[in-house]
Amino acid sequence: MIHSLPTISTVHGVFTVVIEQYASVLVTTPTIQTILSIGKRRSCAFITATDQEIGRLTLKLRDDDAQFWYELLASSTYTEVCYNIQIKITLTEGATERYFFYGFPLRNGIKWTTHYIGTNRIRTCELTIVEASRAIFDGSVETWLEIVQGEAIGTSASVTYEPSKVMSVRGVFAALIYAGGLNAAFDKGDVSFVYGTQDLKFGIADNNVGELYIATELFDVGPTEYFDSSVPATSFYHYYSTIKDLMADLLHNFGLVFQVYYDLANSRYKGKIIQCRRAYTTDLSFSGREKIEDETTASELLISGTRFTQLTDDAKFAWASSVAFDPYVIAVTAPPSNISFDLDYKTIFSQAPIATNPGSTGKELFYSATEIETSDAPPVLVVGTSNYYSYRQEADQSVSSSATTIVERMMSGYYLNQLGIQWKKFSHNYGKITASENGGGETFSVVDMLKRRSINDDADTLNYLANLVEMDSESAEVKIDWIQEEL
Fold first, then answer.
1. 22-26 contacts: CB < 8 A, separation 24 or more?
2. Which residues contact 61 (CB under 8 A, 6 or more apart)?
3. Residue 253: in which H helix or E strand, if any?
4. For residue 10, what are the CA distances in angstroms to 36, 93, 208, 442?
5. Which of 194, 205, 372, 377 has the maximum number of C-beta atoms within 10 A of its C-beta?
């Protein structure tokens, strides 16, 4: 059932709220305004050095005489997230309707207060909605695996070990959206790769993440081990029981942050896999509307050790530590017992050493500079020296093509030389919830995590990235925690 609530006119524009109710209990759509305020919309790229936070929004409600909200929320199944109630909020700026927030009620974020006025009773509620991407984490690895297998693109492979069915890394994430039940059909184009200055360069062709492919089948082998569900002992079933664990390794495998949004023009959820630093090259402008500024000389996003281990072989790993005897040096020998690792992840996909075939596990990376469609030539095996950008040394660092742990070395060095530094942090409060970017007009839609701004602290003018973004439409301001992006 669809409930279209009365619109809300504000200084920002007109909010439209639509509720999709999938429960069998019918409730009556209110005709009066029951939303007292649309509060803080929060997004955070890194709540710690290892964890991304799922976005959330708070609403203040006043129930009507028919108890619409109370009955609606009570009708949901008893789960942590009320997936049978989806709340969709858009904001129309001028004549343009834009996605503001789509999500589901968080059960422990429902707080009712009853006010008694004589014999009358009025209920109010503080409601927290969690971003729709939360549904992905409750999807199953089995469903995701079946989607990747079924939707992989057939190529014109005709030679030993050529990939006959492939999926782009972007498509792997698109399958997560579909497996979470957010879209009615799979589309490999649902996810885009966002980067400004390229941090990771794979193989001799310096390929970016958006050009990478994985093989679900090989010409003379058939299904690769990862994607052969008929042999659970070597497929993804063996390695992962939850999507959350799978996604954590996937994101760190390629240095990414994942963001899901709703595309109003195409009526479907889409995603961005975003390079975790230097993702954007243009500054946000707030037209001098700073209200409050707090400055600290170090952020909480600090680590001292990283380790990446191949998913299929615990003996193949790389690590680095800022407190080791040889600080910041990438090592492949067993670490001393006094070394701990803040980032300790599995690399699902790796790079083959030069002059070797890809094997049959499905872990090796391939590349194509153009989008592969059905019956196109297969992608090429990624070989040769790879490079990662060291934020500590301010230069690309190469990883030898003869190594058997190329990606593991890349990611250990990349993360330690990015997060093993005490970066400055500014917290700014701005009047209004809008900004402009790249000469465009003012809009709330550009104010988002990982966006960039240069800040002059009276010593230097440096680039900063938006880590925490709290957009408060009720008080008409936005708070952003800016983390220094590079030296």
1. 22/83, 22/84, 22/85, 22/86, 23/75, 23/76, 23/77, 23/84, 23/85, 24/75, 25/71, 25/74, 25/75, 26/1
2. 34, 35, 36, 69, 124, 125, 126, 127
3. helix 243-254
4. 12, 10, 42, 16
5. 372
Number of H helices and E strands in the chain, helices first, is 7, 30
Instruction: Please tell me whether residue 122 adopts helix, strand or coil conformation.
Output: strand
**pLDDT tens sequence across 353-399:** 876 678 899 999 999 999 999 999 999 999 999 999 999 999 999 99
Rounded distance between C-alpha atoms, residue 18 and residue 6, angstroms: 9
Residue 15 and residue 450: Cα distance in Å, rounded? 25
Beta carbons within 10 angstroms of residue 77's beta carbon: 12
What DSSP character marks residue 171?
H
Environment class of 18 (CB within 10 Å of its CB; exposed 0-12, middle 13-18, buried 19+):
middle
Single pTM value for the model: 0.95
- How many CB atoms neighbour CB 189 within 10 A? 12
Q: Render pLDDT for 308-347 as a digit per residue (tens, 0 to 9).
A: 999 999 999 999 999 998 999 999 999 999 999 999 999 9
